[in-house]
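Write out the bound-state structure for aspartic acid.
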Amino acid sequence: MRKVPHRSQPLYEGKAKILLPGPDPSTLVQHFKDDATAFNNAKRATIEGKGVLNNLISEYMFQALSEIGLANHFLHRINMREQLIRKLEMIPLEVVVRNIAAGSFCERYGCKEGTVLPRSIVEYCLKDDKLADPPVSEDHITAFGWAHPQEIDDMLSLALRANDFLQGVFRAVGLRLVDFKLEFGRSVEDNGDVAIWLADEISPDTCRLWDRDSQEKLDKDRFRHDLGKVERAYREVARRLGVLPSNSALKNSGAAKKSAAEKNGKSSESIRSVE
Ligand code: ADP
Ligand code: TMP
Ligand code: ASP
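---
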């Protein structure tokens, strides 16, 4: 029987998720909120049902990655908004993989949106909203001690493997994986061995997904650029992947969205960093 995590104070509330203690110290409960932000928190809104859809889509992606042996933090889904994950020491980087030019890449390099890149490009950004997640080089990463050279190698190879695999998963349901952002964390074994794991989430919040035929955007760009029908886009991705919950399940989980964290009297004072 699965252990049911006890309910206690959130450890951390981020822009889209809340982290709570898991049933044992090596785990966390990751709770997906309906909150959406863009441009480093400058733009905010609530997208009803987003948390449920991202929880289910991310579960699907991490489970599929586990099946090909790609080390990741996902343990199991607890309910419609929560999943149990391995607690990691997070590496403060956003690793972005790009297959097609879009977003900040077009602005930075003067590239036309939609240009297929000659090969997949991996970029590293410092995860820091106040600094607007600036792009950083491997030199920055090692000089500032955010990750060791071996850890960068591990992240790069995991990111490229994930890209190959996820492109195929999305292609099979008529979606183009334009680009996406990954986060990684490390675990330190008792014998001192360090392992790098894929963490956080994979969802339309963190991926650009375009319909193969119409090129319609089915991801958070609909929110970023006021394209409308945001929730419909997330639902469509879930539907194509076969993880769309019934309307009643979605509604019930909407009503129950104040489940874990909120029920426990979350307040800004009670929230602290996981580390
Ligand atoms: P943000 O912190 O950018 O606002 P979220 O709202 O998505 O982002 O919050 C989730 C937080 O959990 C992120 O800061 C992310 O780095 C962190 N995180 C993701 N996976 C793990 C993990 N396995 N262990 C510890 N922290 C994690
Ligand atoms: P960008 O083009 O805005 O740099 O985004 C690249 C990809 O990374 C895109 O799929 C959106 C995703 N992303 C996040 O998940 N979080 C972020 O904070 C940013 C800036 C991008
Ligand atoms: N990091 C951005 C924010 O949280 C999110 C994004 O544009 O995807 O505001």
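---
The chain has eight helices and 14 strands.
Residues 149-171 form the longest helix (23 residues).
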